[in-house]
Amino acid sequence: MPRACKLVVAVVLAVTVTTTAGSAIAAATAAKPSISGFAPLSVKPLAPLTITGKNFTSVKAVTIGGKAVTFKVVSAMKVTATVPSSATSGKVVVTTAAGSATSSGTLTVVAPASAATLVGNAAAGRSLFIANCAECHALAAAGAHGTLGPNLNGTSLAEPVLISAIVNGGSTVMSASAAADYATTMVAFGHVLSTAQIDDIAAFVYGATR
């Protein structure tokens, strides 16, 4: 029976060893990188991505769907990257001096929701915002000047982030360091407002902050 052979790909590098007796050339090998996975499997543009694998010691480039991304080598087994705003779904590729590795799976890049896809009624959401949110948040479109919470003008928050904050409270979308800048933490409205009302507020804030 024939034996199966495994092809090992490596790059041979020249290494010079110098002693008092002179110099000699020795052979060293740099193993080709490999990708075991990445997380999360689905991301929005500008979100962080963690890539795991082997031999990430000399990473020269990382691409998603053929587009270069900014990255940081954490260790020989981990690289973190930021999904660019122009990214599209595709394979993740890590390139080092020894070669390139391509992910077996495809990273799904989810486009941010547009105002046209929001299910809420922005006009109704404005009235609800004034009644429930204006005391804490500043938002010009609502004539609100609250200072207890973050100023929402120009924040361009994604719809899922807005809904999560309204339903579960501000601590779910704000880091501890950012929350420390405010005297109070936004309470959860998931048990106070209906799903339709929450969608209305999210639709209003989404459109008003762009």
Q: What is the helix fraction of residues, given as a range?
A: 10-25%
If you average the pLDDT, what whole number results? Answer: 80
CATH topology of the largest domain: Cytochrome Bc1 Complex, Chain D, domain 2
Uncertain segments are 1-15
Q: Indicate the CATH class of the largest domain.
A: Mainly Alpha
CATH architecture of the largest domain: Orthogonal Bundle
Structural class: alpha+beta
Q: What's the name of the CATH homologous superfamily of the largest domain?
A: Cytochrome c-like domain
Short descriptors:
210 residues, alpha+beta, Immunoglobulin-like, Cytochrome Bc1 Complex, Chain D, domain 2, 5-stranded mixed beta sheet, 4-stranded antiparallel beta sheet, elongated, disordered N terminus
Short account of what is shown:
The protein is α+β, with helices and mostly antiparallel strands and 210 residues long. It is 19% helix and 36% strand. The strands form four sheets. A five-stranded mixed beta sheet has the order 4-11-10-6-7, with no helix packed on it. Strands 3-5-9-8 form a four-stranded antiparallel beta sheet, with no helix packed on it. The protein has a two-stranded antiparallel sheet with strand order 1-2.
